[in-house]
TrEMBL record:
This is Uncharacterized protein. It comes from Eragrostis curvula. The active site is at D11 (nucleophile), D13 (proton donor). Keywords: Hydrolase, Magnesium, Metal-binding. GO terms for molecular function: metal ion binding; phosphatase activity. Signal peptide: none annotated. InterPro entries: HAD-like_sf, HAD_hydro_PyrdxlP_Pase-like, HAD_sf, Pase_PHOSPHO-typ. Substrate binds at D22, D97. Pfam families: Put_Phosphatase (PF06888). PANTHER family: OS01G0600500 PROTEIN, PHOSPHATASE, ORPHAN 1, 2. Its cofactor is Mg(2+).
Amino acid sequence: MASADVVVVFDFDQTIIEWDSDRWVITKLGAADAFQRLRPTMRWNPLMDRMMAELHARGKTAEDIRECLRSAPLDAHVVSAITAASALGCDLKVVSDANTFFIETVLDHHGVLGCFSEIITNPARVDADGRLRISPFHDSESAPHGCSLCPENMCKGKIIERIQATASAKKQHFIYIGDGKGDYCPSLKLGEGDYVMPKENYPLWNLICSNKQLLKAEVHPWNSSKELETTLLKLVNKLISPPAQAPQLDYKCEMSNPVSTEVGHSQALPVPH
């Protein structure tokens, strides 16, 4: 199999980055008080747009937000995994419930934005007043996605189906890497010959373990950036040069308290090279 036939789909928050980009910006720029006050009253996506208005009202500019995001760490193993998979010819995409502004800023700062063919996330723009605006990927009022597993603003499963439809003629195989509840629906869309890489002891992993028979894809958990890199490159090389007989990995589902992550963290955006 040619490496171009391997599509690697990354979640962003707590997958590419070990932190949550929304919470990082809100906390570092001093708006945690407003977030705590508004959180019980709003869904995540409109709440993030409201928080950007709050930051704007407090005198924080779009450039302040960029600088805040640039100050956040990105593990060297993740950078290495991305650049190596790209160098091997894989088609890399981000499917995330964050937003274009946050994702592009982080990936560009660390020199890996050009490795991705597509950033599929909630649209973001800076308006005429200089305020960052965040919009839903799916408009729940005019075009609801109808998926009960996913937040109103984004069904990652439908996004994966769209990618699969364009890839079917080329018989591409998928590796999906994620951590949260929103990554479960797309994992269910994967087929035999595909792989899902859930972050151990996070909601996606716990949902998979609750009924692993629902998944057709082979499951390869990871629990550190180093393990993400090792596992991803092992799977990529396996797909490029498959062995004569590859045994099914027998993984253990050891349930633990799920880590609290917010589902609600993205319009398909071509990345300029």
